[in-house]
Each structure stands twice: as structure tokens, then as C-alpha cells.
Amino acid sequence: MECGNNEALLAKLRGLCAKYGAERPRKRCRDYMITPLSKTTLLPEELNWLYEFELNLRPEDRMEAAAMHEGGASRAIMDSVKESEDAFRVTGEVGEPLVLYGKYKADGLPGRLIWCMATTHLPPYEREFARVSRKILQDWVKEYGLLWNAVAEFNEPAKRWLRWCGAEFGEPLEMGGEKFIRFFIRRKDNV
């Protein structure tokens, strides 16, 4: 996987490596890698990865994406990446797409809206990814004070992960004919 010649992207990678203890411009987590996506224009290799990601999306995440976005999962993936101030892809040891996640600042709202989607390839990597992702969310909540979004009521794997990451669940709402539950991860004042 090539990073390209984008100096800003390489600087971002080096910053992630320093923050999470990696030795190279990529975060090595046991047998998968977390890599930021390009900010301006997606590279052909990144577009291919996103296509493969969408083909292998977990059924719960596909249904959730279809309820939240009129264009279905493909549109949800591209919009999420495009609108994010930071988006990351997690790739398995043989190049299989595992997870896509990110954050963005919603106009007029506090904190950051966070999102995460996974593929059917994730199960062998779940435990390690859960540990690393919780650390990432802890860092984000320290920086922004509040992380939030909504999760489909039927998406048990996502709700279980969010609960483990410290999410509080709020009032329900409906999108695309499905029931969703708002969630919040708040900074602890004593941190």
C-alpha cells in the first residue's frame, strides 16, 4: 500500500505513528493496519479498497447505511469519507478491508459526529481492534469533549462496541423507516 507523494498525508501519518507508538508511517496493530484516507482526492488504490469494503459490508451496517442515506451503502460510504475531517481505513494482514471510520464537525453542534462501519472480515480482528479503537475514541473525546451520533436499534454488534467504549444512549429517533438510538461519549471532567 503506497502512501503517495502527498506531504500533508505523510505528516499526518507520522503524527499518528508518534501518538500511538508505531515506528513507521502506519499504525501497526498486531496483524492489521490503520491508514488515513487522502483528504483532497481519493487515490485509485483507495477507491478500489472502498469498493471492496462495500462489497463485504456487514449486513447490519448495510441496513443501517441504507436507512440513513437515500443512495444506500455505496453513497453512505462515499459521503462519510467526503464529509469527514479525518477518515481512516483498517486493512487486514492480507489486504482485506476490515473497518472504515471517521469524525467530522457538524455546523453549530458541539464535539464531533463519529461514524464506523465494518465488514464481514472483522471477526478474527475484533478484540484487538476494539482495544485500539477505544483508545482512539478516548483521545478524541479528550480533544473535543463530546462524541455523538445514532446507531440503528437492530445493530447489536455496534451497540455492544459503543457500550464498551463508554457510550451513553439517549432518546430514540426514526430514519428511513428504521428505529435509531442517539449515543454520546462525554469527556470526564476529572481527566
Provide a descriptive summary of the structure in words.
The chain is built from six helices and eight strands, in the order H-E-E-H-H-H-E-E-E-H-E-H-E-E. The model is unreliable at 1-6 and 20-29 (pLDDT under 50). Helix 3 packs across helix 4 (72-83). It has an eight-stranded mixed beta sheet with strand order 1-2-3-4-5-6-8-7, sandwiched between helices. By secondary structure, the protein is an alpha+beta fold. The chain has a single domain, classed as Aminopeptidase (3-Layer(aba) Sandwich). A hairpin with a 4-residue loop joins strand 3 and strand 4 (97-104).
Low-confidence stretches: 1-6, 20-29
- Name the CATH architecture: 3-Layer(aba) Sandwich
**Which superfamily, in CATH terms, is the homologous superfamily?**
Gcn5-related N-acetyltransferase (GNAT)
Structural class: alpha+beta
Number of helices: 6
String of helices and strands: HEEHHHEEEHEHEE
Rg from C-alpha positions?
A: 16 Å
**Count of DSSP strands:** 8
- Number of individual domains: 1
The amount of beta strand, in percent, is 25-35%
State the end-to-end distance: 37 Å
List the defining traits of the structure above.
single chain; Aminopeptidase; eight-stranded mixed sheet; 191 residues
Give the SSE layout:
Layout: H1 7-20, E1 27-29, E2 32-36, H2 44-55, H3 59-68, H4 72-83, E3 86-92, E4 97-104, E5 112-118, H5 126-144, E6 146-152, H6 156-164, E7 168-175, E8 178-186
Parallel strand pairs: 5-6
Antiparallel strand pairs: 1-2, 2-3, 3-4, 4-5, 6-8, 7-8
Helix pairs in contact: 3-4
In short:
The protein is an alpha+beta fold.
